[in-house]
Amino acid sequence: MRISLINAYSTRNVGDAAIYHALATLSESPVPLQCSLPEPKPLYVPGVEFHTGSKRKSDLYVSVGGDIFNNARPGTITRNFIGNLRTLGSAPASRTILFGQSIPRSCRGASFRLLARRLRKLASVTVRDVESYQRLRLAGVAARLSYDAAFIIKPNDWGRQSALALLGKHSIEPDKAAVVSLRSFDSMYPIDNHQLLEKITRLCSLLTQRGLVPVVLMQSEAYGADNDHAMLQELQRTVPQLQSINPFAPSIGAHPWETAIGLLEVASIAVAVRYHTAIFRTLSGRCPYNLYYSNKGEDLVQRLGMPGKSIEDFDPDRHIGDVMASARRSFDIFSVRNQLSKDFQTACLLSQMRQAA
Q: How many CB atoms lie within 10 A of CB 215?
């Protein structure tokens, strides 16, 4: 079966690249999945073949996971939103499924009504958080609830060895590493960047006092606010000794998401501002401390029981005990993986049934 991924974003965000690889893994396709990507030089993703230009004819079209249906300007509909909606509608509805997406809170009013109208036509719609599921069901979309596709990925030796090598360059022992991810915010998510930096600065100080070595995981080199370099530079102005790990840097044969997963497997503690930092930590059966900023991250805490707080409610001094305790928390990754695989196969089957009808 020929499969195409549509509405892809970038391979320069580790989470998005992991989703593309995860969908190839879930599909078990003997041929690479096709993906049109507006990126000059996409990074290599096993199981996926990137190309530019229009999509190619396929038996199944999968609208990839993520928060792609953001609509950052209330009261109007952004060009980016219209482009994603148009792409979603350009493939035959009976051959198109949406899998592992969230519906951002910024998508409301007219934009949400347009999206729901389009989704009602698709063969299958599967989202990754309860809030998105409930909103779509109330709008008459026969949505199903599952998990982010990246939960299917398993840690491997290449990722662990790459992570250990990068930690070794900074003379950081894995059992002393406290990994923190960052991101900057814009109109997509109403988070104050300055307040976030103040909280992370204080958190780094508290972790250091407890004998740990804070280290920032660079998770995205994509576009605009979705590039972690600016926030890291701001943070290092107040914490000059702070080290960082960049999984996009040349390593010992590991893909960026493998290095990130390996780092989060071996580290003592993981504090996840980035959504996929939290997911990557669970892939080895360990829990992160999740600082969420949207419904997708809140779902990890409320539905999957991860320790964490919203960024607004997080108080480093008050919650440092919970952060430290997260190192001892385990996560049942096997149940999630098994259910995720079943849900993807169900989504594909629904498309086949629609085509046969």
A: 22
Q: Give CA angle at 257 (237, 155), nearest 5°.
A: 120
pLDDT band (50, 70, 90) for residue 251: low
- From CA 102, how far away is CA 93, in angstroms rounded? 19
| 3 state DSSP class of 312 | coil
The predicted-structure confidence for 21-58, as pLDDT tens digits, reads as follows 999 999 999 999 999 998 889 999 999 999 987 667 89
| Residue 144 near residue 98 (C-beta atoms within 8 A) | no
The DSSP result for 244-303, as a single string, is EE-TTS--SS--HHHHHHHHHHHSSEEEESSHHHHHHHHTTTBPPEEEE-SHHHHHHHHT
Distance CA 5, CA 33 (A): 7
Bridge partners (DSSP) of residue 124 are 97
Using alpha carbons, select from 114, 121, 70, 131 the residue that is nearest to residue 94: 121
For residue 98 the two structure tokens come to 């949406």
CB-CB contact of 200 with 180 (8 Å)? yes
Dump pLDDT digits (tens) for 188-243: 788 899 999 999 999 999 999 999 999 999 999 987 778 999 999 999 999 999 99
Euclidean distance between CA atoms 124 and 350, whole angstroms: 6
The Cα–Cα gap between 290 and 93 comes to: 36
Quote the CA–CA distance of 219 and 272 in Å, as a whole number: 11
Report which of 123, 200, 151 is spatially closest to residue 303, judged by C-alpha positions: 151
Task: Take residue 246 and report the two structure tokens written for it.
Answer: 């960049």
